[in-house]
Amino acid sequence: MTHPHDLPPVNDELLTLAEVAAIVRAPVATLRYWRHLGTGPRSFRLGRRVVYPGADLRAWIDTQATASHAGAAPSTQR
Prior knowledge:
Layout: E1 14-16, H1 17-24, H2 28-37, E2 44-46, E3 49-53, H3 54-69
Antiparallel strand pairs: 1-3, 2-3
């Protein structure tokens, strides 16, 4: 099992699909599905790779936490 201190830092760097999956503790397939649906954290192609801006991932996580603390179901919208 991965420990939080083993995860890459989330800042302004570009994160890979595998790194984001580890951070949000979701399968890579789920992130691909969210991307297909146009939901989840913002991502884009950089050449042949899909990357996630760290700052956008942090904002998306904060939005999910705020929505669930307010009693609403978290949104997976970008």
